[in-house]
Request: fold
Amino acid sequence: MDIPRESAKFWHDPALSNLEILHATYITHSFALHIHEGYSICVIERGVDRFAYRHNVYDASAGSIVLINPGEPHTGGAISQEGWTYRGLYPATDLLQRASSELVGRQRGIPFFPEPVVHDPLSASLLLDLHRALEVSDSALESESRMLWTMAQLVLRHADDHPFLPTISVERDYIKKARLYLEEHYTDNVSLEELALHTGLSPFHLLRVFRRTVGLSPHTYLTQVRIRHARHLLLAGMPIAAVALNVGFVDQSHLTRSFKRTVGVPPGQFLQVRNFVQDKHGRAI
Reply:
């Protein structure tokens, strides 16, 4: 059994109201009583975090979500030598207020989470995907879309004043405009705000309608468009690194990760298979 070691990686995202992000393993470290100006939203990946909050003591085990409201004193620490590993997001209040307001299409107050520990696999999965994306992705569309969608789901599922989510219709003309815009600007770092402004829909409504109509999120659709163009350029003989830059990826490794997730093999192996088939049969597949 591997013995965990203490480690902490901290960074922030200026594009998301200077969102603070932490991925940490703590063994002996414990947090003194402290507060955050914004929210503290954490997913426990391993071990158990024991913390004092609002005159009670809570244990958050692996898979659970810890929701601490702004300005609320709390502690944190391990209950065993195993320690605990978690991924934390510390969004400003305006991010959650915006998500809450976009859910219903009107201005709402700052959300309050009554339960500090919740067990919700769907929300935990969304938070982990968001956290991991913020660690590696340079896509404004992906970061903004994942952030808004995930925070909106947390508010919808766990805030004390559950907003009523209005029904949506399939608005094909709006989505046609959104798809065409992504296909024409696939080399750009398109933002969610930019795409929403072009279509005339609010950002969250755009996400809902796009998912309902296309079956993909806008940032996933944009990646598919880029991969399609990358395949053509690779087969035309362009070097992989040049292809990455020509289709809107930050670098070759970004292209490789996305290409493998979509095609099943990295670009280099994709070309080897194509060349083998052409050599063997004298034609392309």
Remarks:
- The two ends are 47 Å apart (CA to CA).
- Residues 272 and 278 are 10 Å apart (CA to CA).
- The first helix runs from residue 93 to 104.
- The longest strand covers residues 40-53.
